[in-house]
Design goal:
Distance between the termini: 19 Å
Number of helices: 5
Strand content: 25-35%
Radius of gyration: 23 Å
Order of helices and strands: HHEEEHEEEEEEEEEEHEH
Strand order of the largest sheet: 1-2-3-6-5-4
């Protein structure tokens, strides 16, 4: 009788354990995959709330406030708009990286602080047309600075080009890294990738799945099928030579969706073992 009771208890416990594992698998996988698929299905999102919520789930790093709109003016002509990202946030010495091509021939530059909506005057501290980089000093830019990735993306890695348009909305383009190469004359590395749209790429930042900077997109594309970005490592080098501090991740990026899949694998194996014990 006791043996029968123990057997029933063991089967009941095993069934409960399998149920718990299945629930854990569902919880771990549902949220990251649903948001990831939402972004994969639609490369460009114009709805502010849905874009932000998707990015926050897909990437553990909060980065939306580090993407800014850049406005340029040439006399009485219609202003031009591009994007940029914050590399250093400070009330007195904020810095933004953007496209050099966007600033060509312009006599006034302004940056919109996404945290407050204030429009701030910007000054060029360095400009490199060879690899389409401009560093802007923006006083009063008290908002989030983006974090640089600790390692470069390997070919095939998924990346995201992210920008803020003239209406202040975040736009996202997904793709993969093709390869990277050195530009010896300029002393920088360039990343080729497929995450982009040719009409609005000026000043957009290239991010990995953790929301960390892996490059600054160039206006000039590598070829008809791909886009070029100044590598994050090269950009950090330029900034440090300007005595501009940057934030670099301590660990290599492990996306939230990857962690969720690992949890699912563990839960699946535990459920299998529990079923064997129940039988």
């Amino acid at each position: 009788m006791k043996a029968t009771s123990n057997l029933k208890f063991g089967k009941k416990w095993a069934r409960q354990f399998v149920h718990i594992c299945c629930v854990s698998m569902f919880a771990a996988l549902t949220i990251p995959l649903s948001y990831s698929q939402a972004l994969l299905d639609t490369d460009v999102r114009s709805d502010q709330s849905s874009v932000n919520s998707s990015l926050q789930v897909l990437n553990p790093v909060e980065f939306e406030q580090g993407i800014v709109t850049v406005q340029t003016f040439d006399g009485g002509k219609k202003p031009r708009f591009g994007s940029g990202f914050v590399v250093l946030s400070d009330r007195f010495n904020g810095f933004v990286a953007t496209s050099a091509d966007l600033l060509k021939g312009q006599d006034q530059i302004k940056v919109v602080n996404p945290s407050t909506g204030d429009t701030l005057i910007a000054q060029i501290t360095r400009i490199e047309y060879a690899f389409d980089l401009a560093i802007l000093k923006v006083n009063g830019l008290d908002t989030q600075a983006l974090q640089f990735a600790s390692a470069s993306n390997a070919p095939g890695a998924q990346v995201w080009s992210v920008l803020r348009d003239e209406a202040g909305l975040i736009k996202v383009f997904s793709g993969e890294v093709a390869d990277s190469y050195a530009v010896t004359d300029a002393g920088v590395d360039v990343v080729r990738h497929s995450a982009g749209a040719r009409s609005i790429m000026q000043g957009s930042v290239l991010l990995n799945l953790c929301g960390q900077v892996t490059g600054l997109n160039m206006t000039i594309s590598a070829d008809a099928q791909s886009y070029s970005a100044l590598s994050g490592k090269s950009l950090v080098g330029v900034l440090r030579r300007q005595n501009i501090k940057t934030q670099t991740a301590v660990n290599v990026c492990v996306p939230k969706i990857t962690i969720a899949k690992q949890k699912v694998d563990v839960a699946t194996e535990q459920a299998r073992l529990a079923r064997e014990q129940a039988d």
